[in-house]
Amino acid sequence: KLNLFLGDRVKVRDLFFTSLVASDNGATLALVHSTGLSENDFVAKMNDEARRLGLDNTGFADPIGLSEKNVSTAREVAKMARAAFDRPEIRQAASSREYRFTTENGTEKKIESTDYLLFDPADNPFEVLGGKTGFTDRAGYCFVGRFRNDDGREVISVVLNSQGKNERFKKSKTLVDWVFSSYAGKY
Question: What H or E segment, with its residue span, contains residue 161?
Fold first, then answer.
């Protein structure tokens, strides 16, 4: 879904939230351009950060995640997510069901999350703290999410190459429920 259009003038904060809440690639690319770096320089900084985090099997070829040359593992995606979710502004965006703002041109925008677990009406034995969706033909439907149980323990779940848009959320719920029930009191 397109959330921003040619000629829309928005604040960097609005690009940031649109990028993370709606998984909007156009907003992400505009956010990259707002840094003053070229796309290649931005990708180089992404790869530098991956090395800093010890992600030896992760490499980025583009800033928005659509290149088939972007690579990682589930373990390293979880490490990236942990580092990202430790940042309050990312945690806030990743846990938002929606984000509303008005462009500088006066157009009101309502951005809805692609993280369907934030809207899940099921009585889960855990709290959904937020997540990020992704998709490419090669990687399939992907999701990384952060969850907390009643004891206050947290876990990050990563699902890669799911066959369907909703399947990634079902698999995440199954994994998280299994971890919390299997390791209750053991960690």
Answer: strand 154-162
